[in-house]
Fold these 2 entries.
Entry 1:
Amino acid sequence: MLRLDTYGLRRRTLLSVAATALTALFLTTSVVYAEGYAQSPILDAAVAAGTLPPVNERLPAAPLVITPVSEVGTYGGTARVMHSSTEEFGDASSIVGMEGLLRLKSEDGTTVEPNIAESWAWSNDDKTMTLKLRGGQKWSDGEPFTSADILFWWEDEISNVELNPTMPNSFISGGETMKVTAVDDLTVQIDFAVPNHLFELWVATQGYQSQMFQPAHYLKQFHPRYTDPVKLAEMAKTAGFATWAELYANKALTGDVFGTLNFDAPVIRAFKPVSTSAGLTKLERNPYYFKVDTAGNQLPYIDAVDLTLVASPEIYTLKASSGEADLALENTTITQMPVYLDNAEKAGYQVLKYNSAFSSIANMMLNQTAEDPDKRALFQDIRFRTALEWAINRNEINDLVFFGLGTPMQLSILPIGGRCWDEAVSKTNTQFDPKGAMALLDEIGMAYDGEYRTLPNGKPFTLTLTYWPGEGGEAKRKIVELSQTYFRAIGINFDVREVERSFYFEFTTANKHEMALWHADSASDPLWVNSPKIIPIRQRHGAFATLWATWFETKGEKGEEPPKDMQETVAAWRKAKAAGTPEALVEGCKAVVKANAEGAWTIGTVGAFPQPLIISNALHNVPETGWASWDWNYMVRYHPEQFYLK
Amino acid sequence: MWRFILRRLMWMIPTLVIISIISFIIIQLPPGDYLASYIARLESRGSNVDQATIDSLRMRYGLDDPLIVQYFKWLGNILLHGNFGYSFEWRLPVSQLILERLPMTFMVATASLLFAWSVALPIGIFSAVKQYSLADYFFTVLGFLGLGIPNFMLALVFLYVSNRYFGLSVGGLFSPAYLNAPWGIHKILDLLSHLWIPVIIIGTAGTAGLIRITRANVLDELRKPYVETARSKGLHPMLLILKYPVRIALNPFISSIGFILPGMISGEVIVSIVLNLPTTGPLLYSALLSQDTYLAGAFVLMLAVLTVIGVLISDILLAWLDPRIRLS
Amino acid sequence: MTIEKAASTSTASTGQPEESPLRLMWYKFRAHRLAVWSLWIIVGLYLMAIFANFLAPFDPETRTGLPYSPPSWPTVMADDGFNWPPVVYGVTSTLDMKTFKRVYTVDTTRQYPVKLFVAGDQQSWFGLFASDRHLIGVESGGAFFLMGTDALGRDVFSRVIYGSRISLSIGLVGVSISLVLGVILGGISGYFGGAIDLVVQRLIEIIQCFPSIPLWMALAAALPHDWTTVQVYFGITVILSLVGWTDLARVVRGRFLSLREEDFVMAARLAGASEARIIGKHLLPSFASHIIASVTLSIPSMILAETSLSFLGIGLTPPALSWGVLLQTAQNVNTLAISPWLLLPGGMVIITVLAFNFLGDGLRDAADPFAKERLS
């Protein structure tokens, strides 16, 4: 028996946020317009010429209706955005959007709501998820979007061992791979071995185009199941690839979500790339986009997007602050605030202070499983960790780096004041008490010669921090510089080694570090639950106890068995993840945050500081406040298809 | 003469082989590979890369082969098929990426070179003729300034000033409006309005060396008997110098020609990174950073080979001009 | 014997002051006034580096609590009239939350006279002795920032002085390594000639063919990750000199090639002197002046390379303190817009590089005014 869960019924009653629920109802209600829908004037000629079907035929039977943030917009214009590398498309997706089968609601960023799928439902035992598609929805080339596209993605891409040698963890539950079946053209059923309610969160957040569906009608020509392998091998060779798999990956836009190299592949998103040259990629509106506004206008409002490759961060800042971009967010930093504000009026843009979703931009981690036995013993002494905590003047960091706008805290799950927030726990050990720290170090027996301290056994002691300075502008470097003086002030001979990001991972996963530093992301509710960095469950993000992380990741085969309290903390997270109910999630996040703070496992500094969002005066319907984080794919959370240029 | 050229050509073969090996070692020296840096990049922005993705990518890129196999695969493809491989990061053939950016690189390099010579020649001649005068010091200091200012700092200052005070659209060699426009007088003007910044920065960094060469040559020339004779007849040395400028400039120019282009290409890397120029410099830098093996390898190899050829040309020219070298 | 005599005259001549090549060189050198001034500047810079703890008004890590303070110089015109000693005023800083800029208001009623040997941060001189005296400064509270302060409120002038220790020594250490490599390999190559020469020449050619940036990046990335800042510093110096020795080797080889045919070398060889003795005793001294000139000219490129490495993120990084690090931290639009004084360390780099270049030119003019082939 199926239980309808479409409009977040369960969440609504539990969260009891009436206002949100009301909007939810409004947002997702399908309105059928008798006179038909309106479209962008640039499409009129094509429709009149008969090369493009009329808008009513292009839209699904029940388009998704979006309520504009402030008003119904007007059509037209080209939005200008930048990207800094072939992988970073934060600003681009903030205009273009990303479409998953489901999505997270703009208002709370927590509740799952329909998107491409018209509705979804769970069986009573939470083992079967049924997704219902919109009838009549089409790809950007006019071909229908059906359950076959999801099935193709599953059977021919994910389950194909040549494309995908190992089954991704996300699709395994209870040790078994999930099963995907097409009930009919518009209905897909996914079966799990064990209850897996949180899978809907995965569907809603991994919103890249290729995540759960692929244009089967287009990709079949590149797949050996549908095309003669000999001919396919020939095609691959002609295109310069060694195998068909490379050719397929190239055509399927795997890892190239913005299709800057392949303009043939049809899309579901609001815009489709049409050309790229000299670092400028041009995107045009997708005439088959499936969303309309409350007045029945087909979205998006904006007609085209110009995406410029700007690798240099300084040029990014200069361009953003001279009005050369309609939206800049991904590489803005609070440290550059004076520059943005300086030129805002002259260059015609405004600077909005969005929230960053870092619970600390610089989270320091003493390796509990350090190689050196003397140092390991010292790092495992909670008094030593506490001494380091107390040595840090977080208020000074906040003033000097974040203009006093951040919040000194230990790693927590944001937002501040949210259901996972615990004010007292967040303040644990954040007091600045160098005298107390000195007393603790004396108590451990670290001899002090007026400048530096020795190890408790009398050997000389240096503590080396290994870190990558990227992300957050100059913030990390400044915090590290300050920390060196804080730690030296209590007699710790503190040395710093900056490394490239891939070396950081190589170094920490090999357990070669004494202390590491990384930005504390994956710290927002409810997204923390997918891969929390606050507990050492993965080697790549378990720098504060690499061998424990190895132990958890290999299920006890390798690494070292962590202490009981750490095992209990990880168990609490596992429980929350398995249950997936709001109560379980809240219970879980409170448990891990508390364990981390009380155990002084990691040293948090300052978090929840603002992230500048630069919006040209021409761009409208952008919320005044919000979250600027990759957790929600930047502005994708706020329906960029209803932004308009005036 | 032909024997000399043949001998030099023969020597190029082992040099090139060693260069290809060292190029490959250089790009493989940093720990990790492209995949490691790719995944690290994704993870630093919150993505969680599954082991499955890593496995499939590793297989697809052939990164599991031992180094020696990768080297011979790489070299074999270059020699037998003219195939420089595929850029992991850009998902485009390496040759296409490099060729796309070469014209602009040559243009910036040539313009910088012309600029450097046009500044260095007069200063060099002047400071030799008026050796140890106040004016000599003044112009020498001026000419050497470019050498002393760190390139990246000068580039940023120029960027900022041209953007804030002259309202120029910064980054690249064109304003956004002309980026994809067909060539025309306006596009050329737009190009010129952007080009002067890198040209001055790269050019001034090179003037010092050229001033030094010119000055020494002119000093040398001034001591030759014909100058003495002319001077004793009452001819102003400056007139003589102006009569033989080509002669003065030729020799040092020829002997430095081998290193000019590679020097300019790697010299512009730092400036181009700051200025976001569509030249090869930033491409090389990002390829090295992301360990985009084939792209970086092709670059290093290309620059090294260009240098070898350049040195060859300058050796041949020098030998042609000066028979003593040929016979030694 | 005539041969012995010939050999001994060349050595004996150094004993006679009026004929000493070094003295001759000095006379010629003095004609190049720019070089003489440069020499004094360089001497001054190195003295500054050595006595940084005494010359710098602050400890480089001291946070004054006044971030982004513009340079504030002492004035003698306080209270509408001439005043001695000069004074600096007290300042207060507030953060304007509309512009996010620090606003500094000068309080002319609070005056701090500039004093010599003023007490300040306790400083140790290479761990030998400690003192809290600074050559010049004001009592705490006065804004005595000759080059302003940085984002964390540290005195830029003091940081520049301390930063010179690494930046100026990296050139010397690096060049010493280059010199040893260059003299040994260039000497061997030039003196013995033949197959050895050929191999060394190919090696030099190959190294010079490689663009420096990939070479730096590869070598820097290969530095072990558990090295301390000091070790990294030496690692970087070695990297720079590994690339830099080839030029010196060429100079040395060229000189050897022309000198080994000279009469006095032949004489020494006939007299049965060992190869090492001939090289060490006769050849090296005879072109020491050229080596000195070449070395002087390669120091500034090392100093510049240090800043470039920091810019590329593969050199020294904060909290280590060098001019390269100072410039790297200042390398952003924010600096130009609100705190341009953070670029002043660049001025020090310019002065140093120019001074070394002119000094080197002067030395070379003095060493051999008729030489030109080594220039290119």
Entry 2:
Amino acid sequence: MTSDKVILRSHFYRVGGFPFRIDLPCGADADRMLPTFRDFKCGRREDFLFSAVCSFADSSSGGDFRADDLPGLEQVDYVKNDMGHIHLFRTADGYAVRLLPHGSNAVHFLKASADFASAQLMLMPDDSKAGCALSSMLKMIYSQAILRHEAFLLHASAVVLPERDAAYLFLGRSGTGKSTHSALWMKIFPGCSLLNDDNPVVRLDNGVAFVWGTPWSGKTPCYRNIASRIGGMARLSQSDRNQFWPESGPAAFSLVLPGCSVIRTDPSLFESLCDTLASLCSGVKIGRMECRPDISAAIVCRTALCSGQ
Amino acid sequence: MRLNEDLKLRQIGPYYMIVKTSGERTDMTDVFSLNETAAWLWKRAEGRDFTAADLAQWLCDEYDVTMEVALRDVRKMLLEWQEGGLLSED
């Protein structure tokens, strides 16, 4: 048994207008571990959304952490996504996450309070994916912590159209062509630029919906710390024709809900999201876009989303 | 009978809905649309025991409709609510 003193250094970031704090062991290079967070750094704050204390495990002690090693914890969810294999557990006073990144055999661990306002991370520093794991875990904490503040992380690609002073969001399952559709808008509409290609934040400000760039943008390196009013949202599906179907009320709500990051089995988090979404759906133009991967799709979609505004 | 007290009636502009997560699959959610009359009945039924006849009576008091028609419509609606898990199972 040994005891080592570890000195932590606080790092402050602000994403979607929400400041948060990460304490990393002194000597850890935050910019190297979190390269996509560079534009999101901010000065010392006291009013943060959440704080996360990160420690490095002795890689010889916890390297083969398994789901069975969490006795008595109820597994709430298991997903395999672009981050890797993720197990979510309910603890007595919150949540625990076990993350095994793709192409790695090191398991990283996260514990968070039920409201995700405070979290502890245990990373395997020798893993080449430790920085990715840290970024992924911060995304998990952040995505749940913002739900109580009229905001949510959305699986979407977002573009900004300067002439409308507004952003347009494209939703859909992976592989539907969200990035392709964004690229078409950028190709034909002057000044149109990508805001985020995978996980922007949607946030209500006095009832008006805004979208913010984040440090999480999937495979596309687009980490912009800017915000724009939302002009419209379209859920894409592949088709042999280009047609837009406007939706409203519960139908619009149902188009956006599947793309939102929320622990659905947590009534408190889920209710907060539903309140925000219901409010969003009464003010934003939303519809289904059946599309081909061609320029005419972008024109049809833009015409529909920009009409009557 | 009683309403499922875990559920909340929500309004989006002129529309009403109830969002219910599936107990078995964490990625499934049901979104029920209610028309104005159904939403009005839901609000009156919240937090109390009621029968189909109670709801039909409320309709008759509020709208120009016969008890027979009201009861038929209410029973049909309550069956949908029951199948959708919108009613308490106790």
